[in-house]
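Hi there, hope your week has been kind to you so far. Do you reckon you could talk me through the fold, stretch by stretch? I've dropped the whole record in just underneath, so have a look:
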Amino acid sequence: MTLRGSTQIVNQTIDSSSRVYGITPSSSSYVYTNERYQNFPLYFHTEEVPLGHGNYTSLSYVSLGFNEKRLEGSSSSPWVSSVLNNSQQGKGAMNVSGNLVTGGLGSTQQVYHFDGSAECYFWNVSSSNYTILYNISGDPCQQKRRSNTGFRNGKVIRFMPGEHLPV
């Protein structure tokens, strides 16, 4: 909500797909198939909130992603499939007095998940003001293959409070 401030919003999604089929003329059956579906979401919101006397707060939020599903195989080899989801978010607030920045906060998060026929990987990392809050990674399929209950034993890397990301 702005009161004579400014707001800008971008909300877009790009979808794409590609397919390749190899068909034998005699039987009209597929010899080879390769399909890929991709999705690229982007959302950006920035807002300037006036506080009076030349002061204002600038707020920003951005979210972007890359999502992909693949299917590949042939009549003579096993089917291979994979799903990739990569999501990134960032938000920040900056207080300005006149033309001087008087304070601010920022945070980021990235979640990456790949689930393929042969391998899997998961990563979730978050930071606030250059400090890593958590960094978790692992192989969700390893536990799923053992117990069929999903991801449980990811590698957890904990950082001490105040430890900073390299600038």
Observations:
- The longest helix spans residues 140-147.
- The CA atoms of residues 54 and 98 lie 5 Å apart.
- Residues 6-113 form one domain.
